[in-house]
Amino acid sequence: MTQVADKTTHLSNFTQFREVPGGSPSWLEARRKAGIDRFDFIGFPTTREEEWRHTNVAPIAKTAFKLASRDSAALASETAARFGFGNDAAVELVFVNGHYAPHLSRPAKLPRGVRAISLADALESDDAALEPHLARYADVVKNPFVALNAGFIRDGAFVHLPRGATVEKPIHLLFVSTPSREPAVAHPRVLVVAEEGAQATVVESYVGGGKGVYFTNAVTEIVAAPGARIDHCKLQQENLEAFHVATMQVQLGRDSHFVSHSASIGSRLTRNDLNVVMAGEHADATVNGLVLATGEQHIDNHTLLDHAQPNCPSHELYKHVLGAKSVGVFKGRILVRQAAQKTDSKQTSKALLLSDDATMHSMPALEIYADDVKCTHGSSLGPVDEEQVFYLRTRGVGLEAARHLMTYAFAADITRRIRVEPVRRRLEEYMAAQHGLPIDLRITDLGAHDEAVRQL
Amino acid sequence: MALLEIKNLHARVAAPGGRDILKGVNLTINAGEVHAIMGKNGSGKSTLAQVLAGREAYEVTEGEVLYKGQNLLELSAEERAREGVFLAFQYPVEIPGVSTSYFLKAAVNAVRKHRGEKELDAAAFLKLVKDKMKLLKMEPSFMNRAINEGFSGGEKKRNEIFQMAVMNPALALMDETDSGLDVDALKTVAEGAASLRRPDNAILVVTHYERLLQYIVPDVVHVMMNGRLVMNGGKDLAIKVDTQGYDWVEKEVGQLV
After folding, report:
1. Which residues of B touch A442 (CB under 8 A)?
2. Residue A453 has what pLDDT?
3. Which of A41, B75, B160, B244 has the highest Cβ tally under 10 A?
4. Which CATH code, of 3.40.50.300, 1.10.3300.10, 3.10.120.10, 3.40.50.1110, is assigned to B4-253?
């Protein structure tokens, strides 16, 4: 692998990227330029910066990534088939190394006016809904990876839900990476715009097949107009040599609802930034996350719940299962601005450490500028609960099996909250297989309590 | 041969400098019998139940326990369960994320496998649990819910006795099953437990109150004090303790303790 100094590789990629014709309205040219200039100015972050204290991105900075190219190899279609939802999705857009792959995608059966198309196609026609929203929310100033992604906006997904539209089944955006001999980078971009009262479920999957280093640098922007409802899931199952950096920026209007479940399973190094701005009264946000890491994986989740307006509830639960020498990082920032009276926010972070060498850094950060608010946070970490294990053993379940069962149960506390059945099933099957458990341990009748849990 | 023989059992908290709790317990229980142990908080009665179930938080320092003639203390908690020892918890544990049906089926099959019996499939298992659910007045949805999660105190205790009914133990240890129950819940739980009484099994009831023993009438009532069983008698002893407290016991056996 070629080692180069820092950012030059991406700057020369940008020069090459600009030469590709098409899909470049002038307003976007300006935003790309602003992005790459900003990246050029600040460069990659170091651990001296507070936001990156526990996550060293030097391995990314030092790798000479070329821009990922399309790949029509069998591996792409195999991987897409393995992670696809089939008929469980309303539409499935498949991207290979960041490029839309129509031949692998499933056509949409969507209500009138709803669009779920590739961003490249939308840009080609300079879709009127793009300019007001694309690259308008995610912060290129503070986050160099967002700035870098902005420089390379071309492909990804565009989901537009007109006023009152409802899509029952999930819209699945499946990003498949097929590593090549040389390390490559993709900068996928997703924009979801839900107009007033629209409802949909959007699932982003980032998966990798085969062996080899690659880098996914994704940015997603979600805009929910008043009364809209977005149920979002993100599944990160990159290969174990991959770098995955992603920012999701969510803008919530009055009375809108946003539910997010993020599961990080793969990659060598992941950094997720999830920023939710409650920009209208009575918007509500639930953000849950699950990290299943082992080996030397490093998974960092930074979240920001930005209460900008009054009367917004937010709930956050992140759970980490860390084995071997893996590292989990969670920073949960809750910002309650002066105007945001009657904020009701609850944050919990829990880590299950399966080995003495696993590390968890958990950092709640509450910044409250309003005086009539309710904010709570809690954080715990430790090995499997021996009280629970003993309970199982007194029923004849062996020690090892009891520990596996409790580890499964710890993680299933997140998955059972997921309303998107194909995602929930996939995760629970994966977890059961990991722990040598049969799939019939899934809780099928969620009962009143689980329903209550989901409402949280 | 007695089902359970406890001889001069001493146990302490398994930690450096751990407190001595059991200080020489002697107890023999025959098949078909119900024994009750009463005593004040801190007398060691719950610890005895926990030690018999195999909790590693306690360390046995002296004495022996024979169960069906074999050394019980050599067995792990799960081996004891598979051999037919059951502990109904005072504070049943919540396990979010695992369904009760899976858990119970795993438990029943662990025992069956140990005995060299064929494991039950889903249909056979449901048949087994159906009547027991009625006995303990469990809602049908209960089997597909997470273990004990969001249950009231009474529901958790009913669940313990329900599990006891399904597991069908040779030796049931009921650790303060009556605590925190209202009159109706107590009746359901106690009648359920009493119905499991058979000539070939035994029940050891640890309790503060005589109430529970109105339903599960004991053959022998023991009083525990400062880590020893200091007095025993018939069911009248339970009534006397319940109405008069322990002061008189202390006076009577004072010189022994």
Report:
1. 99, 102
2. 47
3. B160
4. 3.40.50.300
